[in-house]
Amino acid sequence: MTTFHSLKVARVEPETRDAVTITFAIPQALQAEYCFRPGQHLTLKARLGGEELRRCYSICHSRTPGEISVAVKAIDGGRFSRYAQHDIQQGMELEVMVPQGHFGYQPQAERQGEYLAIAAGSGITPMMAIISATLATEPQSRFTLIYGNRSSHSMMFRQALADLKDRYPQRLQVIHLFSQESMDSDLLQGRIDGDKLRQLADHLLDFSRFDEAFICGPAAMMDEAEATLRELGVAENRFISNALIHQVAM
């Protein structure tokens, strides 16, 4: 059911020079409708130039029951992403659909798991919700994140990831890969692809130990990563993948 409600924008926070996090205030009467499984997305609706546009963006977090946030990264030629970047402001009201989508994971307090997340660029957005909820709910579980970006300046959620690492120093491992920034180690230089995952397997990670593997990013990266992880010992039924849905509709 495509149920939209008018929600007020509580905050608009820059993540990078071309990405923002938009936080909506949820009235108490609607909070049950906006409960979400980490990994789901919201559809935003707006009328631009006389045309109704709808765009899907992954939920990155919900700090309190009365708030829910999505991250929007500008896309070349993207009418809605430009609108979000430059025109959406605190106090505005937008039409927002209730959470949708099958990607994600519902943490279970009694579970003790080893989880892997692989994210490229804005593919980090649903991972933020999944990682933070899992570490908070499953005190015996651990997460490893492989996060690829062009450079540290283009990296979304830099401070939020640092805060998570400080909160869970023994249970969260973050491996940053940069394709256009010099690194001290060649292992951390380059894009997420099959060769890079094999290098990480040779020097840093035993991929066969992971109970679940979450992958989000461009479709080609996801396909290659999944094929390589199967080669490296991750069972086929352990994959949970999600293409960047907001790139399909600009």
Automatic annotation (TrEMBL):
<dbReference type="Pfam" id="PF00970">
    <property type="entry name" value="FAD_binding_6"/>
</dbReference>
<dbReference type="InterPro" id="IPR050415">
    <property type="entry name" value="MRET"/>
</dbReference>
<feature type="domain" description="FAD-binding FR-type">
    <location>
        <begin position="2"/>
        <end position="106"/>
    </location>
</feature>
<dbReference type="InterPro" id="IPR001433">
    <property type="entry name" value="OxRdtase_FAD/NAD-bd"/>
</dbReference>
<dbReference type="InterPro" id="IPR008333">
    <property type="entry name" value="Cbr1-like_FAD-bd_dom"/>
</dbReference>
<keyword id="KW-0411">Iron-sulfur</keyword>
<dbReference type="GO" id="GO:0046872">
    <property type="term" value="F:metal ion binding"/>
</dbReference>
<keyword id="KW-0285">Flavoprotein</keyword>
<dbReference type="GO" id="GO:0050660">
    <property type="term" value="F:flavin adenine dinucleotide binding"/>
</dbReference>
<dbReference type="Pfam" id="PF00175">
    <property type="entry name" value="NAD_binding_1"/>
</dbReference>
<keyword id="KW-0479">Metal-binding</keyword>
<dbReference type="InterPro" id="IPR039261">
    <property type="entry name" value="FNR_nucleotide-bd"/>
</dbReference>
<keyword id="KW-0408">Iron</keyword>
<keyword id="KW-0560">Oxidoreductase</keyword>
<dbReference type="GO" id="GO:0016491">
    <property type="term" value="F:oxidoreductase activity"/>
</dbReference>
<keyword id="KW-0001">2Fe-2S</keyword>
<protein>
    <submittedName>
        <fullName>Phenylacetate-CoA oxygenase/reductase, PaaK subunit</fullName>
        <ecNumber>1.17.1.-</ecNumber>
    </submittedName>
</protein>
<keyword id="KW-0274">FAD</keyword>
<dbReference type="InterPro" id="IPR001709">
    <property type="entry name" value="Flavoprot_Pyr_Nucl_cyt_Rdtase"/>
</dbReference>
<dbReference type="InterPro" id="IPR017938">
    <property type="entry name" value="Riboflavin_synthase-like_b-brl"/>
</dbReference>
<dbReference type="InterPro" id="IPR017927">
    <property type="entry name" value="FAD-bd_FR_type"/>
</dbReference>
<dbReference type="GO" id="GO:0051537">
    <property type="term" value="F:2 iron, 2 sulfur cluster binding"/>
</dbReference>
